[in-house]
């Protein structure tokens, strides 16, 4: 049944129960809607940033003076890699009976996420202390910190969620609820990557190409 | 920093209206203190009553922790009615002030008047209209699609409690501190820290944020419910129109609440952390606030109106004894309105300074949206045509809606012309226009809905005489209160003004005041109607559950319905499912077998999150650090703790379902069928004789 | 139960799905590298460079949806796909409208 297998990657409940399948579909669909509402939030932050990075520089630094490509590039690689490792975790969840390989992939993902957050914080610290570019300096900087910071807060929430799920894996085992939560966390994590693609393009690459 | 800041933040004695009234006595302050006192006394009275009747347990187990969509719906409507009371009193006060303030400062200080129009708007939109329609949807929609509950019952409870938390914050602002004076739209830079250093805008920000998060979650819940929980055979195009309008409203809630959240978050960052999103310096752009706010604000108008459209569709077809005319055109018109509502937001700020081309395009889009709305009006008229119309209270509200809404629509098309808009922008003409849309387009619909579905929810009909008295108060009151405002607007009266210099405004202001008093009388009549009906409930009982010869599935079960709605999920074979069943004689059929039914267990997570949310909002408003941290931690902790709970459902055994259902079926068989002419007689026990 | 106890069909499934992720990360990395290289090399003038990286970003978003979020044209994903396309429409209306309005206003303030 290849259709059923693909219906949601990571979902292999090994249950024939139509009721359970329906419940899972409902949860995932609801989560997709949440993700889309979240995406609208990001879209508006992007639109605000796009306007303010041009009109709102005031007497602060312009994007081209502030951004370099090195850190964003490394951050991008880290985040992309974490998406891949989460994909491996999804496969382990679906096919491997061993709890350890699932936990290992999740841990790797978590570490990569933490590295990403740490790099972002160090970016912000550098901008604020060395470039005198705190969010209070100009509209452009306000919009920059809010946009990139909101993405960062999402990653942190994803990490917290991951931690809770690791505990649940240990305590409750691979029960249906935990599987479905891992599946939704996977969607969340991959969606953050999509947002990051827009951030490195419209914030950093646009800023550097002026 | 002062002593005690860590404990109470910016709170001090001066925050209490009683202290302010003592120190600076004036009529305005006394009214403020009186209102605050009223809130405190009412709250205490409720607490005392609950304790004396030993009702705490029942309230907690039966209502607050319940995940039953029907109970949650009723609680939403209760919130809406409480908040409606407040906002109506404010409306009457404002009318009195504007009448008294011709060539005179009147009895309210400008500051107090500004708070009144700000809370009136905020409450009416976020804490009256939204809870009202969410409540009606919650009650009716799952029944209409033949579901046992919404898809995510716990989320539903959390939405309710967050809405309640927001409403509570607005009520608290009467007693502690002052609300914003920046209008319901809270435009910066006026609401920025420089011009509004007090806590008013902070109250607004957090109350509205709580409400908008709650609405997003409700929209998500309803949309998933409609997509995934429909009874077998209930295809999308067999759904009652109310479900279609619910679906579109939900989609709008999902996408349109985000801009509001973003705008209020940015405003909060400006106020709390010195950011420059909307300041008038350092590259801030206050015009972006208008843009973001109305990106939410315009779809919001349709969030408010679409459910009422669904109610009218049900009511008009039921009391005409006909199927709805042009069902598909109504569906497509609803969808068109939903999409177009995202393309017109700029008409709220035609005068902001963009080029004529931009204004023209948004003006045209605005006029376009009138087309599908016009289609709907014709469909309803054609449903009435040659129907056997019964002029019951909900029907009267619906007919009054048709007439009045068209008047409002025409003034809307007038306002959609940018050059005309420049002339009447921000005048009372605008105030008249949007009340002309929202009172018939929302409030009449919600009142009609309560009249129509009340017997389903509580098992007895509402008193018809008082319903009609209320109707005439609302109808006449509306025209008296708002038609003069059109004229005043054209004469140059601007909105949100607390004092007039032109004596010729006086007569029109007097008429508007009389209208407002009549509207208030209409509301009081509704309360009287409720009291009278409860007292005579035995005469009005409709246990069989179909008092109006209804068309859709909610009438196919007992009144009130069991927790699980249907003993056996109905199979749907046509549009107007229950009407078809009655015609084919298969309504009230005895099921061959019963099964166990799994229903969600009660959960305290909703009330806990609501309480913590209110605490968090209050703490942020007053800069009380420890309370904010506590509130946030409780919310996160509750969610995490809940995720470890695995037994979330309880089983209702088939035997008990059978017992309950068979007893009802016996009652149905024993109840004589009643023709429509006896609809309002005590003989109407809810067993309808189907019309030919 | 060890991994080898998996039925033959599931082993096969795991292989195809793993390949799916590998292809996805390959394309994602390639497009990322291309975009950064394009700007770092500084060969194109700003505007064409921005258009080029925007197109690359759009392609990468499609890759992420296809290979990581598993959205495709199969029947079982219709609801999700409709939702995503509708969101794309709303996002476009909101973002493009905002930019149009704010840049237009800015132009009038000069």
Structural notes for this entry:
The complex is a heterotrimer of chains A (210), B (692) and C (110). Chain A has 210 residues and is an all-alpha fold. Chain A contains seven helices and no strands. In chain B, strands 1-2 form a two-stranded antiparallel sheet. Chain C has 110 residues and is an all-alpha fold. Chain C has two domains: 1-70; 73-110. In chain C, helix 1 (8-41) runs antiparallel to helix 2 (46-68). The longest helix of chain C is centred in the first third of the chain and has 34 residues, at 8-41. The relative contact order of chain C is 0.07. The mean pLDDT of chain C is 84. The chains are: A mainly alpha (210), B mainly alpha (692), C mainly alpha (110). Chains in contact: A-B, A-C, B-C. The interface between A and C is large, with 53 and 54 residues.
Please give the structural blueprint.
The complex is a heterotrimer of chains A (210), B (692) and C (110).
Chain A: H1 2-7, H2 18-55, H3 63-66, H4 70-95, H5 99-129, H6 139-172, H7 176-208
Chain B: H1 5-8, H2 17-23, H3 27-52, H4 56-64, H5 69-100, H6 110-144, H7 153-175, H8 200-228, H9 241-273, H10 286-320, H11 327-340, H12 356-384, H13 393-415, H14 418-424, H15 428-458, H16 464-490, H17 506-535, H18 537-540, H19 577-583, E1 597-600, H20 605-622, H21 625-643, E2 649-652, H22 654-670
Antiparallel strand pairs in B: 1-2
Helix pairs in contact in B: 2-3, 3-7, 5-6, 5-7, 5-17, 6-7, 6-8, 6-10, 6-15, 7-8, 7-20, 8-9, 8-20, 9-10, 9-11, 10-13, 10-15, 11-12, 12-13, 13-15, 13-16, 15-16, 16-17, 20-21
Chain C: H1 8-41, H2 46-68, H3 78-109
Helix pairs in contact in C: 1-2
């Amino acid at each position: 049944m290849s259709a059923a297998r693909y219906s949601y990657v990571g979902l292999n409940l090994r249950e024939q129960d139509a009721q359970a399948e329906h419940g899972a579909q409902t949860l995932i669909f609801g989560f997709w809607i949440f993700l889309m509402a979240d995406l609208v939030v990001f879209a508006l932050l992007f639109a605000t940033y796009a306007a303010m990075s041009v009109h709102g520089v005031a007497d602060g630094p312009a994007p081209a003076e502030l951004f370099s490509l090195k850190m964003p590039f490394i951050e991008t690689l880290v985040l992309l890699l974490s998406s891949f490792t989460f994909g491996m975790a999804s496969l382990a969840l679906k096919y491997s009976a061993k709890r350890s390989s699932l936990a290992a992939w999740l841990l790797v993902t978590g570490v990569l996420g933490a590295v990403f957050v740490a790099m972002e914080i160090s970016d912000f610290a550098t901008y604020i202390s060395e470039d005198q570019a705190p969010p209070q300096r100009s509209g452009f900087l306000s919009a920059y910190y809010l946009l990139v910071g909101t993405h960062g807060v999402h990653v942190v929430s994803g990490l917290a969620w991951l931690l809770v799920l690791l505990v649940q894996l240990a305590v409750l085992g691979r029960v249906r609820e935990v599987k479905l939560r891992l599946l939704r966390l996977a969607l969340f994590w991959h969606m953050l990557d999509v947002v990051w693609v827009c951030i490195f393009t419209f914030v950093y690459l646009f800023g550097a190409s002026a | 920093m002062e002593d005690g800041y860590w404990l109470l933040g910016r709170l001090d004695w001066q925050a209490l209206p009683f202290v302010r009234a003592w120190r600076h006595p004036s009529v305005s302050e006394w009214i403020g203190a009186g209102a605050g006192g009223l809130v405190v006394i009412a709250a205490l009275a409720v607490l005392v009553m609950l304790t004396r009747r030993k009702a705490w347990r029942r309230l907690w187990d039966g209502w607050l922790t319940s995940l039953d969509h029907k109970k949650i719906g009723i609680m939403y409507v209760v919130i809406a009615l409480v908040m409606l009371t407040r906002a109506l009193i404010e409306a009457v006060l404002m009318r009195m002030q504007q009448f008294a303030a011709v060539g005179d400062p009147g009895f309210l200080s400008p500051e107090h008047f500004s708070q009144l129009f700000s809370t009136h708007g905020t409450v009416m939109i976020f804490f009256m209209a939204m809870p009202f329609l969410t409540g009606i949807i919650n009650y009716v929609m799952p029944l209409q699609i033949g579901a046992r509950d919404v898809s995510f019952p716990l989320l539903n409870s959390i939405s309710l409690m967050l809405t309640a938390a927001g409403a509570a914050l607005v009520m608290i602002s009467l007693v502690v501190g002052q609300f914003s004076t920046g209008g319901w739209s809270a435009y910066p830079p006026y609401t920025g820290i420089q011009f509004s250093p007090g806590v008013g805008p902070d109250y607004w920000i957090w109350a509205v944020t709580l409400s908008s998060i709650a609405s997003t979650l409700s929209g998500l819940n309803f949309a998933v419910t409609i997509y995934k929980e429909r009874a077998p055979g209930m295809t999308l195009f067999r759904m009652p129109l109310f479900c279609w309008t619910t679906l579109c409203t939900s989609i709008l809630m999902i996408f349109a609440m985000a801009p509001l959240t973003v705008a209020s978050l940015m405003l909060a960052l400006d106020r709390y952390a010195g950011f420059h999103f909307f300041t008038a310096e350092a590259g801030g752009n206050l015009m972006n606030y208008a843009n973001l706010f109305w990106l939410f604000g315009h779809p919001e108008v349709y969030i408010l109106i679409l459910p009422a459209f669904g109610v009218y569709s049900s009511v008009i077809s039921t009391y005409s004894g006909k199927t709805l005319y042009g069902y598909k055109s109504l569906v497509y018109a609803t969808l068109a309105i939903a999409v177009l509502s995202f393309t017109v937001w700029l008409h709220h700020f035609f005068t902001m300074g963009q080029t004529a081309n931009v204004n023209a395009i948004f003006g045209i889009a605005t006029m376009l949206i009138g087309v599908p709305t016009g289609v709907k009006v014709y469909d309803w008229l054609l449903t009435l045509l040659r129907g056997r119309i019964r002029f019951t209270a909900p029907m009267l509200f619906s007919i009054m809606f048709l007439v009045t809404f068209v008047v409002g629509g025409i003034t809307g098309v007038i306002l959609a012309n940018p050059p005309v808009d420049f002339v009447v922008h921000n005048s009372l003409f605008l105030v008249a226009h949007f009340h002309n849309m929202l009172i018939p387009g929302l409030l009449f619909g919600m009142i009609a809905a309560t009249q129509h579905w009340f017997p389903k929810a509580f098992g007895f009909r509402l008193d018809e005489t008082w319903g009609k008295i209320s109707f005439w108060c609302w109808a006449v009151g509306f025209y008296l209160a708002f038609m003069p405002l059109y004229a005043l607007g054209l004469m140059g009266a601007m909105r949100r003004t607390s004092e007039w210099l032109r004596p010729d405004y006086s007569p029109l202001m007097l008429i508007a005041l009389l209208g407002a008093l009549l509207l208030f009388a209409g509301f009081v009549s509704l309360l009287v109607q409720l009291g009278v009906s409860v007292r005579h409930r035995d005469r009005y009982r409709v246990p069989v559950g179909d008092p109006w010869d209804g068309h859709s599935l909610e009438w196919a079960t007992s009144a009130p319905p069991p927790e699980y709605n249907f003993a056996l999920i109905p199979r749907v074979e046509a549009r107007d499912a229950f009407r078809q069943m009655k015609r084919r004689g298969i309504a009230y059929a005895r099921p061959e077998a019963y099964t166990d039914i799994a229903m969600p267990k009660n959960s305290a997570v909703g009330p806990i999150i609501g309480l913590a949310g209110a605490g968090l909002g209050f703490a942020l408003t007053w800069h009380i650090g420890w309370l904010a941290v506590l509130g946030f931690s409780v919310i996160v902790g509750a969610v995490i703790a809940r995720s470890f709970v695995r037994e979330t459902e309880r089983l209702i055994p088939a035997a008990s379902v059978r017992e309950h259902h068979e007893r009802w079926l016996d009652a149905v068989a024993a109840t004589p069928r009643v023709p429509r002419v006896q609809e309002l007689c005590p003989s109407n026990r809810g067993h309808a004789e189907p019309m030919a | 139960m060890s991994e080898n106890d998996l039925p033959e069909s599931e082993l096969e499934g795991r292989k195809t799905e793993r390949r799916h992720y590998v292809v996805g990360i390959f394309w994602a990395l390639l497009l990322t590298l291309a975009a950064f290289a394009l700007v770092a090399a500084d060969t194109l003038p700003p505007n064409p460079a921005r258009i080029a990286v925007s197109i690359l970003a759009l392609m990468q978003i499609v890759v992420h949806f296809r290979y990581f979020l598993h959205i495709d044209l199969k029947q079982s994903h219709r609801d999700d796909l409709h939702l995503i396309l509708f969101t794309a429409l709303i996002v476009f209306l909101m973002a493009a409208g905002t930019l149009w309005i704010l840049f237009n206003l800015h132009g009038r303030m000069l």
